[in-house]
Amino acid sequence: MHMEMIKIVVAGPRGRMGIAALNLIKNTEHFTLVGAVDRINNGRKVSDVEGLPQLDAPIYTDIEECFSAVKPDVLLDLTTPEVGRLHTEIALNHGVRPVVGTTGFSQEGLDKISKQAEDKGIGAIIAPNFAIGAILMMKFSQMAAKYFQDVEIIELHHDKKLDAPSGTAAKTAELISSVREYKKQGHPDEKETMQGARGATYDGIHLHSVRLPGLIAHQEVLFGGDGQMLTIRHDSFNRESFMSGVRLAIETVMKIDLLVYGLENIIE
Ligand code: NAP
Hints:
Blueprint: E1 6-11, H1 16-26, E2 31-37, E3 59-60, H2 63-70, E4 74-77, H3 81-93, E5 97-100, H4 107-120, E6 124-126, H5 132-145, E7 150-157, H6 167-177, E8 200-202, E9 205-211, E10 217-225, E11 228-236, H7 243-253, E12 259-261
Parallel strand pairs: 1-2, 1-4, 2-3, 4-5, 5-6, 6-12, 7-9
Antiparallel strand pairs: 7-10, 8-9, 10-11
Helix pairs in contact: 3-4, 5-6
The chain binds NADP nicotinamide-adenine-dinucleotide phosphate.
């Protein structure tokens, strides 16, 4: 089937996700990299930067200059929360469709982007987790929460991660709480003798964040019942695990005219 070529700018091309995304674009026939936004390397080509794949696209430090010069269809943002939010707003102002993998956006930030996309009638996708297996983990957890009120979420990530809890853990808690009958878990008189021992809470659900070198992105959702425990676990062993979701998001953002938050809303 012939597919229209999609012109893409990647912000954060030297990052771990950025490099995996550049390789995805290089290996996808109907994707073309037309530019990259990096805070260094202005004026160079992607292929001139050590460690980056052989792609001819120019690098800009100023994202507005980049959009005006190369007129992309899609911005793929893989940077940091503050920068990512700013990039997303600028993209929508330029009529460029954002696909955002950057995590750590506040609810207020998301609401603002949602309104901006709706007002402009431009598609946008923000996905805190592009791994299809992680999306299924969230969906299965939501199913299980109908039968198990007691649940704790443990997310484990590499020690370079800036935000905690992970966007995936927060989203899992949100999905669970939408079907779970509220319960304050643990002993009613429970006391922390060391602050933070019971983790963060979302609607009575406890979330725990582990940060260790060597890890990528992992999560366990533990459901406890009388004499039984159900564990739903997902592991991303490398950044390629996210790339089929990135590809789907780039294809889908071209066909929608509002913000979609979470890949679970675009897979069947
Ligand atoms: P990383 O390796 O630290 O890469 C982040 C990149 O952003 C760095 O190259 C950094 O450049 C760049 N950057 C920072 N400020 C910038 C600016 N003003 N303009 C352009 N680039 C800028 O992080 P990562 O592991 O690739 O993760 C990137 C983001 O994706 C994080 O928010 C992470 O949580 C998220 N993530 C999402 C998923 C998902 O499935 N949605 C999966 C994994 C990670 P410098 O080197 O100059 O600092």
